């Protein structure tokens, strides 16, 4: 097993997401060039606006820090290019010396910072607060931005906390967020995800030495983060990987969905283990699926390394199965019933490779307290020493070594029962193919999201979990093509 992404990568990965603290470290390393960087940031923001809008009446609202400085640079550039641009200031005296310097170059009148003015313009550029936002949004800023007809954010919409995506006040949605160097985790995390609009990230010629000064630990999930196993001429089914699941009595559909997903995405062999009474029912259906009727015998087969425990199992049964799997040191993905069994006693999951809770299951395992989803997932992965796939519209995949991927490659089409079982099957297949648990989980979440999008296109936006399964082979192929292009 190899790690394609390490915490100490020599140069900043294109999909790295930078927290405000990491940005500060980078900016400190680039302190000699900081004025040039601000000019580059404003210049690039102006270019992006020109590329995406026809001239319209713009009000650039500038804050006291460097976010405001970026705004002043872009205002000057657009004005010089003949756009009708005005500037308003939250504070007449900026706190950043660079922003003061940029303000000195602006010789048009300053518009009063009042909601009535915001209303008069076609578009307000929110250059009020970015990475330096460190306390609740002032009421006047809330009122001002709310009054604007349309908004674009520089860096982040003011009021969004850059690392966690939480709101520090009433935040107004933007139609675009223009950020620099790399986006921030907040751009892809709920609730900020919903209000950042289109994310445009600009290169501002950050010196290589400064890029090297940061060691990011969060990435935006995409095929550049992982390497899928490929097919080889001497492959055989065992080499490709065997996935085993335990199926219960009442919800055989869940195990069937996981099994079908594992097969469709490329596992060499998938077997459901159940009891002698239930096996005949499980055997009706997919011809290529193997049904076993004895767990203890199945566990003795050394080729059966990867096991899925939980989909369709009541919690007590899941617990009994999990104990046996752990005893045999299998590579386990715990989901559904297995997670309910461990609620209140986390030690029951010690030794599993991956857990896949949705928000409700996660909260029962790891009470959030005052932690955000991101921080809770990171500490949960460390505490349990397992990969945590915290599912949702912004699935967070956290590894025990501190690496985190945030996935936005999904769609609301997945919000239907059974898609979680599908995801578990995909993780199982990729794990059985030899991928590292974190990378297998990241790849599975992306391929699952891609399959959801393809199924939604085919079925008018409303696919079933079964439909998502049918697109997994094609969606793996899309991931492979993207991997080749990197
Ligand atoms: N590496 C990069 O990405 C670069 C970023 N730049 C810009 O620099 C920005 C960060 O600049 P700063 O660190 O100066 O931070 P900000 O401009 O976001 O704000 C900092 C100032 O606002 C005050 N403040 C923070 N929260 C407040 C609140 N709720 N109410 C009232 N006052 C509040 C702080 O005390 C400080 O004076 C980025 O967002 C980006 O726009 C560029 O200028 C250059 C390079
Ligand atoms: N609004 C959404 N946007 C993107 N993905 C979603 C959304 N809602 C659900 N999903 C995804 O669908 C899956 C649902 O899993 P889960 O809640 O466990 O369902 P089930 O247990 O019924 O299979 C997860 O992978 C989740 O990330
Ligand atoms: K902003």
From TrEMBL:
The lineage of its organism: Bacteria, Pseudomonadati, Pseudomonadota, Alphaproteobacteria, Acetobacterales. K(+) binds at residues 67, 126, 158. Homotetramer. (6S)-NADPHX binds at residues 66-70, 130-136, 155, 254, 312, 358, 421. Catalyzes the dehydration of the S-form of NAD(P)HX at the expense of ADP, which is converted to AMP. Together with NAD(P)HX epimerase, which catalyzes the epimerization of the S- and R-forms, the enzyme allows the repair of both epimers of NAD(P)HX, a damaged form of NAD(P)H that is a result of enzymatic or heat-dependent hydration. Bifunctional enzyme that catalyzes the epimerization of the S- and R-forms of NAD(P)HX and the dehydration of the S-form of NAD(P)HX at the expense of ADP, which is converted to AMP. This allows the repair of both epimers of NAD(P)HX, a damaged form of NAD(P)H that is a result of enzymatic or heat-dependent hydration. AMP binds at residues 391-395, 420. The keyword Isomerase applies. Its EC number is 4.2.1.136, 5.1.99.6. One of its GO terms (molecular function) is ADP-dependent NAD(P)H-hydrate dehydratase activity. It catalyses: (6R)-NADHX = (6S)-NADHX; (6S)-NADHX + ADP = AMP + phosphate + NADH + H(+); (6R)-NADPHX = (6S)-NADPHX; (6S)-NADPHX + ADP = AMP + phosphate + NADPH + H(+). GO terms for biological process: metabolite repair; nicotinamide nucleotide metabolic process. SUPFAM superfamilies: Ribokinase-like, YjeF N-terminal domain-like. Belongs to the NnrE/AIBP family. Its cofactor is Mg(2+); K(+). Residues 220-479 form the YjeF C-terminal domain. This is Bifunctional NAD(P)H-hydrate repair enzyme. The keyword Phosphoprotein does not apply.
């Amino acid at each position: 097993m190899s790690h394609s992404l390490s915490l100490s990568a020599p140069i900043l990965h294109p999909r790295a997401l930078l927290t405000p603290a990491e940005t500060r470290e980078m900016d400190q390393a680039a302190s000699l060039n900081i004025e040039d960087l601000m000019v580059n940031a404003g210049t690039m923001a102006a270019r992006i606006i020109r590329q995406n809008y026809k001239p319209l009446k713009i009000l650039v609202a500038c804050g006291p820090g460097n976010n405001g400085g970026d705004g002043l640079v872009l205002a000057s550039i657009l004005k010089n290019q003949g756009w009708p641009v005005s500037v308003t200031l939250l504070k007449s005296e900026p706190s950043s010396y660079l922003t003061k310097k940029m303000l000195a170059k602006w010789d048009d009148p300053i518009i009063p910072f009042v909601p009535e003015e915001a209303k008069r313009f076609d578009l307000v550029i929110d250059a009020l607060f970015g990475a330096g936002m460190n306390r609740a949004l002032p009421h006047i800023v809330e009122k001002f931005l709310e009054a604007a007809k349309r908004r674009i954010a520089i860096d982040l919409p003011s009021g969004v906390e850059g690392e966690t995506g939480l709101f520090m006040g009433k935040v107004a949605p933007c139609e675009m967020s223009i950020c620099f160097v790399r986006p921030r985790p907040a751009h892809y995390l709920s609730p900020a995800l919903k209000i950042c609009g289109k994310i445009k990230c600009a290169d501002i010629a950050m010196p290589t030495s400064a890029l090297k000064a940061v060691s990011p630990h969060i990435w935006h999930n995409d095929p550049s983060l992982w390497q899928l196993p490929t097919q080889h001429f001497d492959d055989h089914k065992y080499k490709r990987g065997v996935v085993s699941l335990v199926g219960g009595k009442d919800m055989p559909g869940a195990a069937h969905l996981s099994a079908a997903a594992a097969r469709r995405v490329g596992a060499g062999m998938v077997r459901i283990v159940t009891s002698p009474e239930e096996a005949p029912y499980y055997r009706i259906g997919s011809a290529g699926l193997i049904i076993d009727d004895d767990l203890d015998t199945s566990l003795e087969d050394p080729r059966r390394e990867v096991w899925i425990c939980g989909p369709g199992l009541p919690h007590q049964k899941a617990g009994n199965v999990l104990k046996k799997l752990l005893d045999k040191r299998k590579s386990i993905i715990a989901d559904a019933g297995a997670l309910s069994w461990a609620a209140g006693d986390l030690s029951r999951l010690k030794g599993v490779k991956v857990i896949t809770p949705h928000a409700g299951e996660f909260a029962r395992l790891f009470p959030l307290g005052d932690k955000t989803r991101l921080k809770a997932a990171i500490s949960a992965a460390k505490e349990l020493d397992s990969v945590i796939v915290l599912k949702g519209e912004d699935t967070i995949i956290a590894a025990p070594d501190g690496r985190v991927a945030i996935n936005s490659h999904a769609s609301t089409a997945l919000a239907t029962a059974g898609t979680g079982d599908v995801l578990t099957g995909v993780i199982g297949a990729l794990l059985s193919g030899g991928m590292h648990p974190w990378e297998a989980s990241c790849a599975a979440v992306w391929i699952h999201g891609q399959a959801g999008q393809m199924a939604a296109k085919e079925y008018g936006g409303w696919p079933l979990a079964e439909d998502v399964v049918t697109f997994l082979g094609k969606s793996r192929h899309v991931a492979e093509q993207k991997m080749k292009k990197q």
